[in-house]
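Incident log, structure service

09:12 report received: a user says their structure output differs between two submissions of the same chain.
09:20 pulled the input from the user's history:
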Amino acid sequence: MTLAIPLRRLSDVPAPAKLNLFLHITGRRGDGYHLLQSVFMLVDWSDRLHFERRDDGDVSREDLTPGLLPAEDLSVRAARALQQATGCQLGVHIGLEKHLPAEAGMGGGSSDAASTLLALNRLWNLGLNRAQLAAIGLQLGADVPFFIGGRNAWVEGVGEQLTPVELPPARFIVVKPPVGASTQRIFSAPELKRDTKTATIQGFAANDSREGPVLDLQKILAFAHNDLQPVAQALCPEMGRCIQWLDGQGLQGRMTGSGTAVFAHLPQTTNLAGAPGDWTVRECSNMDAHPLLDWCSD
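09:34 re-ran on a clean worker, output below:
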């Protein structure tokens, strides 16, 4: 009889970013949380994480790229939340390569948390399913269940209602100034529009497939928008300059999420030049599914 050898490490684990193709605020609950509609789309720009099992129960993190991350970042918090939820006595040392910009609205910290939960579920041999991991992830942030779900999604409620969708392959450019904006300040602004008419998946669908509705990318980009953008631009004028630069390239830029990154669809190969040196500029493609989709059962 051959016994399975327990895993000791998992290396080069991706934590991909997302873009919000649109973000509509359709109302506000009595507890103050905003009701929204959005399409979350995975893109091939990722942080990378490395995990080594510890038998002493401690959780530690090593930053492998320059930065000023808090000691209790979302990867560390995710590991400790998984310990608490399962009673697992094992620990982990996390090596974090941070490539996604902070305060970008691209879900970088939430994606780190989701990949940590997926990786440690394997490394610690816990056997949790996707719904169980998503429930733990929701305690860490509203975007974490999306990354655990592993599919592009139509998003509703306060961000917890996910319907898998398909999107056609496409290229995008993402531009972020060095400054960020406070999500809390954006959502608490009196001038924020909170009554956008509710949309339907069918209104943006081209057809249906086995995996879910196939959305028409051009229709979304033509008619949808980000309700947070006017407030964010007032707080961060540099973001408006990013959009103007994209306009000068013949591209229609818009804000993603609640950060200061903006993006535009690249209909064809474009020679982009002239962006200020302190901006982050990156071309990326969307993905059909999260690279760790098969690491967890449904």
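09:41 both user submissions now match this output. Likely a transient worker issue. Closing.
09:42 reviewer note: The first strand starts at residue 9 and ends at 28. Residues 185 and 240 are 17 Å apart (CA to CA).
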